[in-house]
Amino acid sequence: MKYLLPFLLSLALAVPAAAPAAQVKKPRAASVKAAKAKPAKPARTARRAKAAKKKPAPRKVDYQGEQVNFAEWKAVSDFADEVSLRHGFPRDELTALIRQIKYVDSAVQLVKPGPPGKPKNMNAVRALNIEPIRIRAGVRFWNDHAALLARAEREYGVPAEIIVGIIGIETVYGRDTGRFRVLDVLTTLAFAYPAAPNQASRMAFFRGELENALVLARQNGVDPLSLLGSFAGAIGMPQFMPGSVLAYGVDYDQDGAVDLRGSTADVVGSVANFLVKHGWQRTHSGALVIAANVSAGRAWSRFLDQGLEATFKLDELLAAGIAPASRPPADRLYGLVDLQNGAEATEYWLASDNFFAITKYNRSYYYAISVIELGRAVQRRRSR
User: Which residue among the candidates 153, 170, 209, 373 is catalytic per the annotation?
Assistant: First the structure.
């Protein structure tokens, strides 16, 4: 995550909103520990197996957590009671697991907002993310998985360069997936989130994700404490929160499990599926954003800060003094995006519904522009 931290720190971005958790039937009492390994399916060819599914290298954690005995906290005990009832986890096993969870102060520090008044700077974000190392890694990733990306583009309608852009911005194609124990950071943030106006809602979000992580680990037959991720609990190459894995994860290699840590096929399919479920329109081809000039009269300012949806007709945007560099289709809806550049002039863009679908992955215009521009840069370098 170190390459994504500029978004989270310098831009003071929020953790993505909670994804709806998958519906999980209440099972009989089932162990919270790792399940026994399932019988393997017939192996594919060595080449396909190597390309589609790589075992992640063992990683060390990034911190020394503090043992605080969360099991003695009343709020944690109440949470464990509820989870045990909802999902059939044996209560004594949950208690034993919770006793192994550590408090992570660095996670608390990292979710705090950045200093007030610091100006955003899109060009600084570009310099950090649209750079030679990431572009070269993107070319290698695309070349190695061209058939897989083409399949996802065909089946979901999401262009390969957008999938490549997201995976590159998130983890540099799996290089930086995070080395925090997911249960440690989720428990810390669920029950010790720092004081803030949105503290209650954020704690509720992380409690939900902690529950989702327990369900996910049992569903995949892994030790919950083996899950590693970002300081906010995001998992794997595409940095899905546990609830997003349950809700949007795709077993794209059809091996019986969704694996966003070791299966490139599952990663690609899941990213494409996430975008489609958040409004991506396969029939809306063409530019996702178009650079625009704005008039001095500022009648257009009422279209700013109107959320993460394309809600305005082209004619009303043009009438307010917005002049796109090229004429987009008139039968679609758009939004006006402003990107600050520190002391330099602000950039304005006319944004499509597919642009806003990317913002559901990370709720930031700067993020979505970075995804688009990295994907384009990799595509250009690959075509040379």
Answer: 170
